[in-house]
Amino acid sequence: MALDGIPKMKIVHGDAGYVLEDVPHLTDFIPDLPTYPNPLQDNPAYSVVKQYFVNHDDTVAQKIVVQKDSTRGTHFRRAGPRQKVYFESDEVQACIVTCGGLCPGLNTVIREIVCGLAYMYGVTNIIGIEDGYKGFYARNTISLSPRSVNDIHKRGGTILNTSRGGHVTSKIVDSIQDRGINQVYILGGDGTQRGASVIFEEIQRRGLKVAVAGIPKTIDNDIAVIDKSFGFDTAVEEAQRAINAAHVEAESFENGIGLVKLMGRYSGFIAMYATLASRDVDCCLIPESPFYLEGPGGLFEFMEKRLKENGHMVLVVAEGAGQELIAESLRTMNHQDASGNKLLLDVGLWLSQKIKDHFANKGKIPINLKYIDPTYMIRAIPSNASDNVYCTLLAHSAIHGAMAGYTGFTVGPVNGRHAYIPFHRVTEKQNKVVITDRMWARLLSSTNQPSFLSPIDMEQVKKEDEPANQLFDQNSIADDYHVESTEGNNNGLPDGSTSC
Ligand SMILES: Nc1ncnc2c1ncn2[C@@H]1O[C@H](COP(=O)(O)OP(=O)(O)OP(=O)(O)O)[C@@H](O)[C@H]1O
Ligand SMILES: O=P(O)(O)OC[C@H]1O[C@](O)(CO)[C@@H](O)[C@@H]1O
Ligand SMILES: [Mg+2]
């Protein structure tokens, strides 16, 4: 339950600075719940697996690059099936809801929750809530079975539909209670996980035996703690097609410029990875790295040089880049969508016009600019093979956690191992590209673009940047965050927040 807006944390301390940031369990607020043997032990597919069940005290380390004298640091509870479960198969009434924007793989996760519950735990009562959170109280539900979801993973979008806004906690929990739902699987981004957290708190306050499991979804990859979000790889792959087209167009005309706008409201991961993967991009602009157009060291100077050298160039811009520059030139109001997310000004159109105006000036070279905006194309497609496997593991981890009585958690890989992470850890901040980290340096050295930072700016940025996870980059200095940023308690949390 929240105290001054801060959720109560379940922290366990161990030797050598070991800290477990645990997730809630139904028995925390409903004592004496009966347990049952896990039906998986009799499942022919799983019964042969040596050590199939996860040990009760298995945890996953957040920081795996360590030094001789390092403390052990923060850990999360390892995901996976437990010996004992807190639900009998025919007692389970599960529901699934998808919220926020689309993302490749949503249908795969839905399919695998339905099939996983049915095939691993013999659960048959599963319903889909349509249209996101508001569907809890505004729409009828749809019944889901392995048969009805059999080939949905081949389709983009979500068969349940999704929405932004419309989260009224009390009405959602009333609906959960009235329908007798006792496992809630919620797929969505940071906003959705915030919504899931307050649903969990209300369920806990009412003392209901209902497990709430969040499955993080966003192509922006802006969810903290987890290695990466599903659909991200698919989106990066699809972005290659747009970049290829931009390159072909640019190459085929004198002083051709291909400009591609990619998604990324606050985080430039898609633009950064699409650029690194393509090798055809001359300059990548992301929200985390401020840039400027005119004067020495600016974008236009770089473009003139590149066009002189190569006769063409490709620019990739993340939708959230340069917002302050556009706002300055357009003096626009601050608009929001139904979920309260800032509505962005179109950097692609703005930049196209600025580039055209610049090169139209007397004495400048004539250019051929082609602007490609594949925004929704990269997220409205089915997930690729590796995302499909990832989605399956996420669904299974969520099911195992809920069946084992864990609740109020988001599931996701931390350093490659699936873990149960308390909601507040994935919602307290967003994952961003750290421009003082090695991955951004790799990009700068691969495109050879300017950093747009003066030596003074660089010092400032180094001081300000809080390293976050960088997509499996185990060598990243970002991993040092949890030691360097702690004061006193060495667990990455504010002092005084360690009581359990
Ligand atoms: N603080 C909050 N408390 C309760 N509900 C919230 C909160 N923030 C967002 N939500 C709800 O979560 C849902 C999804 O939020 P949002 O539109 O921000 O997308 P998201 O989950 O962050 O996904 P995306 O990756 O597309 O941004 C909406 O229904 C919104 O009302
Ligand atoms: O147009 P919609 O559906 O609100 O979604 C756009 C947003 O969704 C995201 O893909 C995920 O948050 C952002 O990159 C983008 O700004
Ligand atoms: Mg969001």
Question: What this model shows, in words?
Answer:
48% of the residues are buried. Helix 3 packs across helix 12 (385-403). The radius of gyration is 24 Å and the shape is elongated. Strands 3, 4, 6, 7, 9, 10, 11, 12, 13, 18 and 19 form an 11-stranded mixed β-sheet that branches. The chain folds into 2 domains: 10-229 and 383-433 and 466-480, 3-Layer(aba) Sandwich (Rossmann fold); 236-381 and 434-464, 3-Layer(aba) Sandwich (Rossmann fold), CATH 3.40.50. The protein starts with a strand and ends in a 16-residue tail after the last helix. The chain is α/β, with parallel strands linked by helices and 500 residues long. Strand 12 (183-188), helix 6 and strand 13 form a beta-alpha-beta unit. The protein contains 16 helices and 19 strands. Adenosine-5'-triphosphate binds next to helix 6. Catalyzes the phosphorylation of D-fructose 6-phosphate to fructose 1,6-bisphosphate by ATP, the first committing step of glycolysis. Its EC number is 2.7.1.11. Substrate binds at residues 218-220, 263-265, 319, 376-379. One of its GO terms (cellular component) is cytosol. The active site is at residue 220.
